[in-house]
Write a structure and sequence with these properties.
The complex is a heterodimer.
Chain A (H helix, E strand, L loop, with lengths): L2 H22 L3 H26 L3 H31 L13
Chain B lengths: L2 H4 L7 H23 L6 H22 L6 E3 L4 E3 L1 H28 L4 H18 L3 H19 L6 H32 L4 H10 L4 H18 L7 H8 L2 H25 L9 H24 L4 H22 L6 H26 L15 H4 L1 H15 L5 H15 L3 H27 L13 H19 L2 H11 L1
Antiparallel strand pairs in B: 1-2
The chains are: A mainly alpha, B mainly alpha.
Chain lengths: 100, 491
């Protein structure tokens, strides 16, 4: 198996792990880390593809994605602070007032 | 390959500057509005005025330049032509109405003054998202738009519901964005490009590999997340209910409009490309999602007693109708026109309806029960009549713009041969009449009893609602102006 395929498999594995973390963990900090993992898996896949295609497009885009991931986690953390102030906990099961 | 070959930095012509001016104005206006919003006593008013003026300027600029020559930047990544200018015009007008509604809620509830700046940032993201053909540029624009909206949803800091809605929207929105990113990475791997026209060429000239299909599935799923279609609708009711009503109004109009336009653009270049094998699978996917959204949204909305929650389920149903229009686009991009018209009319009535609900709400309540507004038609005749018009328009009753939108949408779908789906759409919209009329019955025919919502007149929201109602009736009776405009754009 070539390196390219291995890298893609790794990216797919990381993406699946990230998705499982987001969907199954109850701790919002872990969920935030899961979202970061998702974005980083996509980054890895893009870098590997641009190496395979001998193009710089994908590698360039990764910088933008890293910037956005930073902004996203900043907003995510501030939402968590807000959640903690209101509910006294950052577990997802504490925030279940909206139903119907 | 050097950096300059990928992103050639040409000197912009004056025409290009004029085309970009709305974006530049919005970004700087947002920063200005952040700065003037810090004033201790008059900050909120100043932020409101500066954002309103900036949006007004953008509307004038986009309106004046609508017919100007197309500007293509960054090798076709950003295309600003009369089509995208008109879409941007719509987005800016939704934002302006939302700013006016926000001012009313701000005076009552004392929101943070940053909300005005966030609306501008989000609008800039919308304009970028509707003007690009590049998948990753679309991701960046989507994040510019969504990050601002996440904050707006979680903005009422002392409200449980707002915090919870913000968390839910953030997690599911982040998941959706990551799907778009990974999907476009896989498409890049299969076709060697992020550019939609180039991808289209690549897949029509030779059969794409399996990763292309996986990537396309992920991209489509993420866009269906953003428009809130079944089975990716989980966040819609909670977020619509938990957010402040002005934010709900902005989301139901602007964010939905943008996400749908982006979805239509992606679908046009990928799913409806000619002669690509296995595309009927993706068509069936859209078909199923459309049918599920119509049926689920309408039937669940029947059992809702809270108005914002009911409208959020009805918005899922409307997503279903719009997906029907999208599905009809496989017969040719003309069907896209009816989607734009429908979205525009829907956004108007939805903005207006939320503007009226905003005037009834008291700060700490999460929603307004339907029986709380019993008899409002007699006590507040103008607002009662406006709300009635909006609900009738959403139900698609003739003489309102909703009827024109729905008629155009179903008509193109029938012409495209989608009869079974249109039958589902018509039957479910008959169901929808029940829950819209139920509210109207409460407005006019029930005596108020129990705890009633107190109507607090907000001049801004009242004006926004009246204007939207006037437009709804105007376009319902004389739709030609808007139909001609959109048809002209199609060429």
């Amino acid at each position: 198996m070539t390196n390219e395929i291995l890298l893609q498999l790794l990216a797919a594995f990381l993406f699946t792990m990230g998705m499982l973390v987001v969907l199954m963990r109850r701790d919002t900090i872990m969920i935030l880390m899961g979202i970061e993992l998702l974005l980083n898996a996509a980054n890895l896949s893009m870098v590997a593809f641009s190496k395979a295609h001998q193009m710089l497009d994908g590698q360039m885009q990764v910088f933008f994605v890293i910037t956005i991931a930073a902004a996203e986690s900043a907003i995510g953390l501030s939402i968590l602070v807000n959640l903690y102030r209101n509910f006294g906990s950052i577990k997802t099961q504490s925030a279940t007032t909206l139903k119907g | 390959m050097t950096l300059m070959e990928i992103f050639p930095l040409d000197n912009l012509s004056s025409g290009a500057y004029v085309s970009l001016l709305p974006l530049i104005l919005l970004s700087f206006g947002a920063i200005l509005s952040l700065l003037v919003g810090t004033h201790k006593t008059r900050g909120h008013g100043n932020a409101f005025i500066s954002s309103g003026v900036v949006l007004g300027l953008c509307l004038v600029l986009l309106g004046v330049n609508a017919g100007a020559e197309a500007t293509v930047l960054l090798n076709g990544t950003l295309v600003i032509d009369s089509f995208t200018r008109t879409l941007s015009f719509f987005a800016c007008s939704f934002a302006l109405i939302s700013v006016i509604i926000t001012r009313g809620i701000d005076l009552k509830e004392n929101l943070l003054s940053e909300v005005y700046a966030l609306i501008l940032f989000s609008t800039a993201g919308m304009i970028l998202m509707m003007s690009t053909n590049h998948l990753l540029f679309m991701f960046i624009a989507l994040e510019i738009m969504s990050l601002a909206v996440y904050v707006m949803v979680a903005m009422r800091r002392t409200s449980y519901f707002s915090a919870e809605a913000g968390l839910k929207y953030f997690i599911l929105g982040g998941l959706g964005s990551a799907f778009l990113l990974y999907g476009s990475s896989l498409i890049f791997g299969a076709t060697g490009s992020f550019d939609l026209p180039t991808i289209n060429e690549a897949i029509t000239s030779r059969t794409p590999t399996a990763i292309y299909y996986v990537g396309l599935g992920l991209v489509l799923t993420s866009m269906l997340f953003k428009v809130g279609a079944v089975p990716f609708h989980g966040w819609v009711p909670d977020v619509y209910q938990g957010a402040a009503t002005n934010v709900t109004a902005f989301m139901s109009a602007g964010v939905k409009f943008t996400a749908f336009m982006a979805l239509a653009r992606i679908a046009q270049y990928t799913i409806f490309a000619e002669g690509v094998p296995f595309m009927q699978w993706f068509e069936s996917y859209i078909w199923l999602v459309a049918a599920a959204s119509m049926i689920y949204g309408n039937f669940v909305a029947i059992s809702q007693n809270e108005i914002k929650r009911m409208l959020s389920f009805s918005t899922i149903a409307h997503t279903g109708y719009l997906l029907l229009g999208l599905y009809a686009m496989k017969m040719g991009p003309e069907a896209g026109q009816s989607v734009i018209v429908y979205l525009f009319f829907y956004a108007l009535s939805s903005l207006g309806a939320f503007a009226i609900i905003a005037q009834f709400e008291s700060g700490n309540e999460k929603d307004l029960r339907i029986d709380q507004i019993a008899g409002m038609g007699l006590r507040h005749p103008v607002m009662g009549a406006c709300l009635t018009i909006f609900l009738l328009s959403m139900a698609g009753i003739p003489l309102t713009s909703g009827f024109i939108g729905k008629y155009g949408l179903f008509n193109t779908a029938v012409n495209a041969g989608q009869v079974p789906l249109v039958v589902i759409a018509v039957l479910t919209s008959v169901v929808s009449v029940y829950y819209y009329l139920r509210v109207i019955v409460y407005i006019y025919m029930k005596e108020p009893e129990g705890d009633q919502a107190i109507f607090q007149n907000m001049r801004g929201a009242g004006i926004a609602a009246t204007l939207s109602a006037a437009a709804t009736v105007q376009f319902g009776l004389f739709p030609r102006a808007i139909l001609e405009l959109v048809k002209h754009l199609g060429k």
